[in-house]
Design brief:
Layout: H1 9-21, H2 23-41, H3 45-63, H4 65-68
């Protein structure tokens, strides 16, 4: 659950191995990083909300109906 930027080299290798073995896990990890980026880089609430709505639509692939609660 760590941010990829905060991983040490051995953790990066372990993560790469896990993601190689599971396409679903890879997508979930990518979505997690995208959500973190939205939070950290959106310059205004309006821009962040627009990006979040787009992210929620993408997140339905992995998180299904749970995402619909927020749309």
């Amino acid at each position: 659950m760590k941010n990829e930027a905060d991983l040490i080299e051995s953790e990066k290798l372990e993560l790469a191995s896990l993601l190689k073995d599971s396409a679903c896990l890879g997508i979930a990890d990518q979505l997690k990083e995208e959500l973190r980026d939205i939070y950290e880089t959106s310059s205004t609430v309006k821009i962040g909300f627009k990006r979040l709505k787009s992210w929620l639509n993408s997140a339905r692939i992995i998180f299904g109906k749970a995402v619909s609660l927020f749309i």
